[in-house]
Amino acid sequence: MSPIEIGTASVIAIIVMIYLGVYIPIALGVVSFVSIWLMRDNFDLAMNLLKIAVADSAMEYTFATVPLFSFMGLVVSKAGLGTDIYSVMSTGFRRVKGGIGMATVGANAAFAAVTGSSIASASVFSKVAVPEMLAYDYKPRFAVGVVAGSSVLGMIIPPSAMLIIYSFVAEQSVGDMFLAGVVPGLLLALAYIAAIWAMGRFAPSFVGGRPADDYEPMPWREIASKTLPMLLLIFTVIGGIYLGWLTAVEAGAAGSLLGLVIAMLRRSMSWRGLWETLIETGHITAAILFLITAASIYSRMLGLAGLPNELADLLAGSSFGFAQIMVFYIVLMLFLGTILDTSSIILIVVPLFLPLIEPMGLSLVWFGIITVIGAEIGLLTPPLGISCFVIKATLNDDRISLKDVFMGALPFAGVMLFVLILLICFPQLSLAILN
């Protein structure tokens, strides 16, 4: 077999293995290692490239963002800031049709800015928002759909783990990726709120709900006490990076320290809780390091096979322009999103397309935002919509089936696709803060 044939077979094998349940780094690493060995008939070369991949991943300074932001997100979640910000948002939207849904979106956006995790958002707001919406007679499908849709904000609003993974794969600045995610994340949140308003106006039977006449407004003093810690964290992390006061690593350290201080002042974390948080941070960090190492050896395998250049020549020979390439890329992302998780898609697809995108003069930072949002749509689509499965498992309510969660999330997947097209047509939206 030629290197091209081996490389193509390797990509297909990796996708099949991941779909069958093989751990992502194992699939990437083992198949890539064996492919290099077969292509060059040299076991020592494959072993040396594996050593280089491990060293490049472990010794990268910016990798320190992973444990720091993971720790910050876990601490903030345990401190109860997600519940606090939700209760505040409910005060502002309560009397609007679909208002509790809008409050859930707003709270998810704020919560995402200090956790960076869709799974954490789905878990927290399934317990907080869904029971409250059901109590006010909102339709179950709408209730779980709002939580599922808004939970993906955690993967685009910084500090997002997916943006960090992309920055390593594409060799881009983590700080630039974080800043580029702010406007698209806010735009997506606003689009969700507008969609909920439209659903309440034109499809009231899907939304349901009744006026919250029994709700008492929250005092301003309580609002301040519940929002200031979150705002302080957001300003420290995002503001510190934007103003140039902090690098991404320093912002992660400052945010972690501040989150720990907030948790201790609230007495929401014991010494045992701190130890468990540190252990969980270690697990997350090790898993992501393993992913990045596997992605590094995979990229080297693709380079040896010449597959990215072959793909570029194929598309160039077909006279595809920018629009056609973007359509092809997004359709591929949407298809893979139905069978793979977001990190798998980024690790497999991005190394293939980078050699094609770079010569076109397109911003790789912008391309990263497009990639993450495109892959994130898969969190809401069957059969592998992870956010939907998390919501169903967290609720443990026989009245709400997995089908209800997927059907409720469908309109929000459509909104994501609309925003994705908007960001492709207007790249300056992603790069506004950087310029």
List keywords for this structure.
single chain, 435 residues, 21 helices, membrane, mainly alpha, DctM
Can you walk through the features of this model?
The termini are far apart. Helices cover 77% and strands 0% of the residues. The protein has one domain (3-431). The protein has 435 residues and is an all-alpha fold. It has 21 helices and no strands. Part of the tripartite ATP-independent periplasmic (TRAP) transport system. The complex comprises the extracytoplasmic solute receptor protein and the two transmembrane proteins. Belongs to the TRAP transporter large permease family. It is a multi-pass membrane protein.
Largest beta-sheet characterization: none
Question: Runs with pLDDT <50, length 5+?
Answer: none
What average pLDDT do the residues reach? Answer: 83
Rg to the nearest angstrom? 22 Å
What's this entry about, in short?
The chain has 435 residues and is an all-alpha fold.
Q: What's the SSE blueprint?
A:
Layout: H1 3-19, H2 24-40, H3 43-58, H4 65-78, H5 81-93, H6 99-115, H7 118-135, H8 140-151, H9 161-170, H10 174-202, H11 204-207, H12 220-242, H13 248-265, H14 271-305, H15 307-317, H16 322-337, H17 342-357, H18 364-376, H19 386-395, H20 402-425, H21 428-431
Helix pairs in contact: 1-2, 1-14, 2-3, 2-14, 3-14, 4-13, 4-14, 5-6, 5-12, 6-7, 6-8, 6-10, 6-12, 7-8, 7-19, 8-20, 9-10, 9-17, 9-18, 10-18, 10-20, 12-13, 14-17, 15-17, 16-18, 17-18, 19-20
Transmembrane segments: 12-38, 58-77, 98-122, 142-166, 178-199, 230-263, 284-307, 327-357, 364-385, 405-426
Membrane topology: Multi-pass membrane protein
GO molecular function: transmembrane transporter activity
